[in-house]
Structure formats: C-alpha cells, structure tokens
Amino acid sequence: MSKKGSLVIISGFSGAGKGTVVKELMKNYECYALSISATTRNPRPGEENGREYFFKTKEEFEELIRQDALYEYAQYVDNYYGTPKAYVEEQHMLEKKDRVIVGVSGGADSVCLLFMLVKLQKEMRFGLTVVHIHHGLRGESADADENYVRALCEKLDVELLAFHEDVGRYAKEQKLTLEEAGRNVRRHIFEEVCHRKNGTRIALAHHQNDNAETLLWNLSRGCGLKGIGGISPVDGKYIRPLLGVRRQEIEEYLKENNIDYCTDETNLEDHYTRNRLRNHVIPYLEREINPRAVSHMADTMEQMRTVWAFMEEEVEKCRKYCVKPKQDKADGVVILEEGFRSVNETVRTFLIHELLCETAGRKKDIEQIHVKLVEELMEHQTGRKIMLPYEMTGERCYEGIWLHKVKDEEKSGENSKPPVQMRILERTPQTSVFPKKTYTKWFDYDIIKSTVKIRHKQPGDYITIDKNGSTQSLKKYFVNVKVPREDREKIWLAADGSHILWIIGYRQNQVYQVTDKTRRILEIEFNGGEEDGRESKSISS
C-alpha cells in the first residue's frame, strides 16, 4: 500500500530564501520532489514554463485572490503582486501565542504593515501593540503624524503606546548623526516595550527598496559578506514581513484599498545619504540600467546571507582550535599561532574580525585595516604591540596574539581617563589634505614602534623638534616655551615609548608626520577635537 506524502510549500518574494531552501532540501533528502510556483509576469530570457515557474494569466491570479491566499495584493504596471500568507509562515515569523510590538510612524510602509498584521491577527489571535515615536525634530508635521496614528489605532481597535523623545539632544550628547541617534532611540524603546508587554516579536516595516538602499550604502562605505547580505527577514525577535515587497507595491495596495498615510517631508530632502540613494540612485538604476534592479539586488542579498551563514559555521569550527581565553575572560583572548596558520586565509580573516568586535563590545568602525594589522602581527617577534579601536591592544606573545582591552593602569598610571579618541585609517587619495587643528592630529602609523599611550610626562621623555632629527628633552622643551612648572605635570602626551608624538595643545613630533610614503594613518582627537571651542581654519598640509 502506497503512502501519501506531505506537501511543503516554499513561497515568498525575491530575497525571502526560497531557492536556497529548495536547493538544500533537494541536495540532502532523496524523499523530496520539486513542485513549481506560479507567477503572472512574462518569462525572462532563458526561463521555461514548468521549470522556473508556471506562467499564469491574470485570471488565474485573480482566482488566488478570491481564494484569500494573499495577505495583500496590488496591481502595478499591468501585473498583479501580493504578499502570500506562506511568506510569514515559511520564515516562522509569527505564531498564535506571540505578542507583537509593531512600530508605526504613519508612513505608507508602517501603515501597510499594520493593516496586514490586523488582518492576520483575526486568524491567529496573537497580541498586538503599536508603538509610535515622536522624535522632536519636525514640529507640527510630527504632531500631525502622531494624531493620525492615534486615530488609526482607535479605528482598528489596537493598543497604542506613544513616546516623545528629543533625538536632536541625544545625537549631540552622544556625538551621533541624527540618523544614528534616531535608530538607537527607536531600538531602545522597542526593546523596553517588548519587555514591559512580554512581547515575543518586534515587527518592522522594511521593504525591498529599503534593503536595496542598505546594500548600496554598505558597499559605498566598505563592507564584508554580511554587509552585502543586507537586512534579514528574521533577526532574533525582530521580523520584517514586508521585506519581499517593493515600495511601489505597498503604495498601490494602499491606493487600491483607499487607505491614507502620512508623508515625512524630510524623506524628500537630500541632506541624508540614504535619501540621496532613495531619491536619485535607485530610480536611476531602475530607469537607465534595469527596471528590476531592486529585485536583482534582493536575489544577490539572499545568496550572500547563505554564504555568510556558511562562513559563520566555519568560523565557529576553527574557534575550537585557534582561540582560547586569556586567564580571566576580561583579559581577552589569545589567537593560537599553530591553529591560526592551518586555517584557510579567508576563514581566519572573518575569525579575526569577529574576535575584534567581541573584544571591543561593538562592531562599528572595526574595519579591514584592523584585521590586516592583527594578521601582520603574527609575523613579528614576541613583545610587539599594535593599537586597535576602542582601547584595544594586540600583543605578540609566545602562543600567538593576545587581544585585549587596555586597562586604566596601562594607559596613564592614574585613575583619570583623558578624553581621547584614536583610530587607524587606510591612506587614500582623499586623505592627502588635513585640516590644521590644535586638538586633532594625524601621524604616520607605519613607523610607530609600540602601543601609543596617552599619559603625563615621565623621566627620559623626549621629542624630535625638526625634520633634521634634532631632539630635545621634554623638560628642556617646557623650559624653552615657558610652561609653568606646576602645569607641566598636567599636560597630556601621546607617547611611543619615551618618544613623544604630540605634546597635546603644544607641539607635534616632526618624525611622525604623514608623508607620501605613509600607508596607514593614526588619528588622535583630544576632547572631541577642541579644547576651548577655538579652532584654526582648514589648510592643505
């Protein structure tokens, strides 16, 4: 007697991961046979009916509509598009027991998401709470958005929690851009509400065009495989049900269903990089290069997410024999030389980057140049040190490389911490001109012999005072420039051993200045780049 099998439906828009899932199932399990999905679009060059898709008519698609097989749908450029219910199900985004926190700004994307969740809620009976955040940046326009969201939630009978935040002040205090500050504030509030409401999911309204912007943004700034993967449909408790939907489809859905929404006028301005990508770059690509540019980028990001997942597995494997904690976990980790040299070069690059992020406690500003510095350190003798972002140090030791945070006693021998930021930059044509600033300086990192320390004066300190190599003791320098004796102990120094790179606020060492031969630059910024708010005008150096 023959057995009936189970039908597994893999459905979703470009970027959802359909192809990857199907390939893995077919590769690893002999019991699976492939069924083909349907679409209303015309076949692309090389596609065959019954192989890539069953190419259906509009009438056939409309039958799917009558069967209520879509969460939402729209007609765009004479073709039907829709969000299949299976997209949410295949990503395991929602279950009946969930409590969903959804961010609603009042814009088209979040309003569409809210209507989709409300419709789905009737079937799955999960909890739903709307969060609206007033950023304190747009005056009456922001007030109008909040009023709209309040009225919408009342109409839909959905709980609303509204928050008023001063994002501008937060950005200034944290020295962030308004974009970064807004993102941090939103995430903090989402997490707070999720905890308060015992939430299990946080739903965001990112769509396919947002993901294309993210890809272009990441590529422009420089990124690795993970950056090319863009935004994931599911990231822990964060879910993005509209990630496979284009912006045009969302707007058409709202239009077809007579649903109003708010327009943030700042999205039309070109002050922000993302706005320039949204308003100019992506439309140009779709108009002049390929009308399906956004969809093709989504396909690429899907593939890259698969590759990144594989790399993560490989990195985790090599951790077992390449890395060990240094005594107390707070003392950092050691990259073991023997295991390190046996690992594939690409895999160990990813491993170093991951270890740097973990040691720093953050990912921002951890770049490829820092990975290269750690790799090169393995070729140096024991005792050699390198500086790394966020007060990290890499030290060549007998076993390999010790990565750790610099402790307070290592920095200055005192409990006080000087207000200093340091970063290492790759030399580019754009870094050939430097502003003349009193409290920000740039140095040739390639000739620095040890870890640069910010400290007060010590016996034996000296500085090179001219390009001929003439040196002067720090004591003599202070006497010559008439620094009062009582003030000398308070002056901060950037030191390479006993060799002073910079007497902060006074003089920069001539030896360490950036030249045409410099490959890597050390930037030191004291007290946010200014001591008393007075700075000289920018000039070429």
Overall spatial form: globular
Strand content: 15-25%
**Overall radius of gyration:** 29 Å
Q: How many helix segments?
A: 18
Provide the low-confidence segments as ranges: 411-415, 531-541
What is the CATH class of the largest domain?
Alpha Beta
CATH topology of the largest domain: Rossmann fold
Main β-sheet: number of strands, strand sense, barrel status?
A: 6 strands, mixed
User: What's the total number of strands?
Assistant: 24
Strand order of the largest sheet: 7-6-5-8-10-9
Distance between the termini: 86 Å
Look at the helices and sheets and give the structural class. alpha+beta
CATH architecture of the largest domain: 3-Layer(aba) Sandwich
Mean pLDDT: 78
Q: What number of domains?
A: 3
CATH level 4 superfamily of the largest domain: HUPs
Helix content: 25-40%
SSE blueprint:
Blueprint (H helix, E strand, L loop, with lengths): L17 H11 L9 E2 L14 E2 L2 H9 L3 E7 L2 E6 H6 L8 E5 L4 H17 L2 E8 L5 H17 L2 E6 L2 H8 L3 H19 L4 E3 L4 H14 L3 H4 L5 E2 L2 E2 L7 H10 L16 H17 L3 H30 E3 L7 E4 H6 L2 H16 L7 H10 L7 E4 L3 E5 L3 E6 L2 H4 L8 E7 L13 E5 L8 E3 L6 E3 L6 E3 H7 L4 H4 L4 E4 L2 E5 L3 E2 L11 E7 L15
Parallel strand pairs: 1-2, 5-6, 5-8, 6-7, 8-10
Antiparallel strand pairs: 3-4, 9-10, 11-12, 12-15, 13-14, 14-15, 16-24, 17-24, 18-21, 19-20, 21-22, 22-23
